[in-house]
Design goal:
Helices cover 57% and strands 9% of the residues. By secondary structure, it is an alpha+beta fold. Helix 1 crosses helix 2, helix 2 packs antiparallel against helix 3 and helix 14 runs antiparallel to helix 16. The chain is globular.
Length: 487
């Protein structure tokens, strides 16, 4: 009573505006208090399940009856903020448990769906209007309850980024096998569908990044760079300087946050060496949001950038990537380990090649080669590099062209460019001799060439028949592998 007495006095003295401000502050402080109390219980291992249930009870509203859909009062913004604050207060394992509860207990009403499905079957015997209404009713009740909450969260400040991060957590939990819940997989699919709509290419803005762009944006470009790490501010200044271009897709709901970006170098010919990157065209493309995995933006970015560059430089007609080959060294070491465990001499090299290696490094050559490759020590011997060049070139060409995952290219970078309609064009020796490049691909990189009149047909052919368009150099190396190596 004392509290409301003071409120009444304040109303008289300061007017309704001050009262609303006081109540608003009191409500926000109550929200923070609730979240902190629940988080404290979770950290101490007490009342964990009840704390989660209490938060979800307040924030996930019941699905309105079909007849009154769209007529419910607006959900308070505080519901979204309470959910966000509570989730962020959890530790990783608690987040998984929380998401399992959200997906299972606040998803689809399966009993209602089963009953409506039976009614839909019965409606087939009646008129079209009855059948269509039954379909619409079933479609409505197939909506998970948490979907409405996610929709409300997307409209609060920072809500879109929160949902991206939330799906990122789901993806990482599934990849780490922290959960195998089918309900979590359903939650992931629902989030992906929502994000695909919100981040469709038609709603994104293509921005050119320059040295005059906001400092925060340049810093994020440096932070998210996934192919060639940015060393310092001078490095990033060079990458957006003369004869260079950097483009990014952004979304109005996440100002200053690049979603995917592409670095381009403009020269007269296509490069074969990262040390003289002036000759490259697309030399780095990076996605910044784990939550957008499976939402294809990179291929659309490349196509938009091609149009942008052709508009700026009408004579420009050669487009290519200079791409890393992540995973090649790991794949090769795996082959050597597998054949060692099988107790037989490796057949991925010819006998004469093993003899040359033994002459330089000693015996047993497979074991010595495995150690040299895993430690990068082989690059310190010019003689050994000369011997290994034809060997590694043909092995890498097979890794790119012949190794498959579900009949598509195993290497993810190769699969990306081939799906876009590119041609696997040229494998380049000693293209990236940085420690990272040597560890990933024995220093090799590959060009994917974009022949603009052919990319549509190439893409359709690859997606439909899994056939890879490749140059004569690549096919010759593949042929050498098939002739000289036996796996």
């Amino acid at each position: 009573m004392l509290f409301f007495h003071h409120i009444s006095l304040l109303s008289c003295l300061a007017g309704r505006y001050q009262l609303r401000r006081l109540l608003g502050k009191w409500h926000r402080s109550t929200l923070v208090f609730r979240t902190s109390v629940c988080a404290t219980h979770l950290r101490h291992g007490s009342f964990a399940a009840s704390a989660m249930e209490e938060v979800l009870r307040r924030t996930v509203v019941p699905l309105p009856a079909y007849e009154i859909q769209g007529k419910s009062p607006p959900v308070p913004e505080s519901n979204s903020m309470e959910f966000i604050n509570f989730y962020r207060s959890l530790e990783t394992s608690q987040k998984v448990a929380f998401l399992e509860k959200v997906s299972q207990e606040f998803g689809v009403d399966h009993q209602a769906v089963a009953e409506l499905a039976l009614k839909l079957v019965e409606s087939q015997k009646r008129d079209a209007a009855t059948m269509l209404q039954a379909e619409d009713r079933l479609r409505y009740y197939l909506t998970p309850r948490y979907l409405a909450l996610f929709g409300h969260i997307s409209r609060v400040e920072g809500g879109m980024k929160f949902l991206l991060d939330l799906r990122g957590d789901v993806i990482e939990a599934l990849a780490a096998k922290a959960t195998d819940s089918p309900h979590i997989r359903g939650l992931n699919a629902t989030l992906k569908s929502m994000l695909s709509e919100w981040f469709s290419v038609g709603l994104l803005k293509l921005e050119r990044i320059t040295w005059k762009s906001p400092c925060e944006l340049l810093q994020k470009i440096s932070q998210y760079e996934a192919v060639h790490p940015v060393r310092n501010w001078t490095d990033i200044k060079h990458r957006v300087g003369p004869y260079r271009r950097c483009y990014a897709f952004t979304n109005g709901a996440m100002p200053g946050e690049p979603l995917v970006f592409l670095h381009v170098a403009l020269t007269e010919e296509i490069t074969d060496n990262i040390q003289k990157v002036k000759a490259a065209v697309f030399y780095s493309i990076s996605s910044t949001q784990v939550g957008l995995q499976g939402v294809e933006l990179g291929n659309y970015l490349i196509k938009r950038v091609v149009r942008e560059l052709q508009s700026e430089f009408p004579s420009l007609d050669q487009f290519s990537s200079l791409s890393p080959i992540p995973g090649f060294t790991v794949w090769l070491l795996g082959l050597l380990n597998q054949q060692r465990n099988d107790g037989r001499r490796s057949k991925i090299l010819m006998d004469t090649e093993w003899q040359e290696i033994e002459r330089l490094v000693g015996s047993p050559a497979p074991e010595r080669l495995r150690k040299l490759l895993s430690t990068n020590e082989w690059v310190h011997s010019e003689q050994l590099m000369d011997i290994l060049k034809p060997i590694l070139m043909r092995l890498c060409s097979w890794y790119l062209y012949g190794e498959k995952h579900r009949s598509y290219a195993l290497n993810q970078v190769a699969n990306f460019h081939l799906q876009n309609g590119a041609t696997m064009w040229r494998l380049n020796w000693k293209a990236d001799m940085s420690p990272r490049g040597i560890s990933a691909s024995c220093g090799m990189m590959v060009n994917y060439r974009y022949f603009l009149p052919d990319i549509g047909a190439n893409s359709a052919k690859y997606l439909r028949t899994k056939v890879i368009e490749a140059s004569e150099q690549i096919l010759n190396l593949v042929s050498q592998f098939q002739k000289n190596s036996k796996l």
